[in-house]
UniProtKB/TrEMBL annotation:
<dbReference type="Pfam" id="PF08713">
    <property type="entry name" value="DNA_alkylation"/>
</dbReference>
<protein>
    <submittedName>
        <fullName>DNA alkylation repair protein</fullName>
    </submittedName>
</protein>
<dbReference type="InterPro" id="IPR014825">
    <property type="entry name" value="DNA_alkylation"/>
</dbReference>
<dbReference type="InterPro" id="IPR016024">
    <property type="entry name" value="ARM-type_fold"/>
</dbReference>
């Protein structure tokens, strides 16, 4: 295993994978992708650059089959590839991309699969198409896989941190509140992460929901703790900027 740190190395690997696809087909291209990229230490931004190039290289009709083969390898970096490939497909294939992301997350059964794909698909979509995305997040909140439900927290955290509009944040926080009584620790991780981020960037939304948050019959202590941490980080940031 080597460490890949330069864009030039990424572009060289991309050319090899694309050549393998053109000359030998998808199976060989996946194998080349594994040996050239996924078996090595590569920073996520470089993997994202690689994937966007791969998206341009692969015919649209072959992209999901390629992703299925990558998912079967069960590598950490492969999740970045899956997330960005589906992200690129959101414009033309919005709902199918959501469905495929949920499929990969549920099958992955690991926290990092949730967070990597959740941020890059659900979070990106929420940030850029909130009105279209919010109903889908509310639907996925009832998904039978708790891994998928956890991923909504990761996606929400990403979108809020990146500047999601306040009206959408209010709706996201309402969704988080609806999930706060879960007993599943993975869902708590995701929901708590997004709640903490809401408090850090939008303390006014926390204030709007103060009475409900303080109601111990409706909101558990762990959720309030996440809110307190987020508010403290907001105050600290204000002090730094003062």
């Amino acid at each position: 295993m080597r460490k890949i740190t330069r864009k030039g190395e990424i572009l060289a690997a991309l050319e090899k994978v694309c050549a393998a696809y053109r000359e030998q087909g998808p199976a060989e291209a996946v194998a080349c992708c594994e040996t050239e990229m996924l078996q090595h230490k590569v920073k996520f931004p470089l993997l994202e650059t690689f994937t966007r190039g791969l998206y341009e290289c692969l015919p649209e009709t072959e992209q999901l089959a390629f992703c299925d083969r990558i998912a079967a390898l069960r590598t950490i970096g492969g999740n970045v590839l899956l997330g960005i490939m589906l992200q690129e497909r959101l414009t033309a294939h919005f709902l199918p991309s959501f469905g495929k992301a949920a499929e990969y997350i549920a099958a992955g059964e690991q926290w990092y699969v949730c967070d990597i794909i959740g941020e890059r698909v659900f979070g990106y979509a929420l940030l850029h198409q909130p009105e279209r995305t919010l109903p889908e997040l509310e639907r996925l909140a009832r998904h039978p896989s708790f891994w998928v439900v956890r991923s909504l927290g990761a996606g929400s955290h990403y979108a809020i941190k990146k500047g999601l509009e306040k009206t959408a944040v209010r709706r996201v926080f309402a969704l988080l509140l609806s999930l706060c009584n879960t007993r599943n620790k993975e869902v708590r991780q995701g929901v708590g992460w997004a709640a903490k981020t809401t408090a850090r960037f939008h303390p006014d939304i926390i204030a709007e929901n103060r009475l409900r948050i303080q109601n111990e019959d409706q909101v558990p202590g762990w959720f309030r703790t996440k809110i307190k941490i987020g508010l403290a980080r907001h105050q600290h940031a204000q002090g730094d900027n003062g």
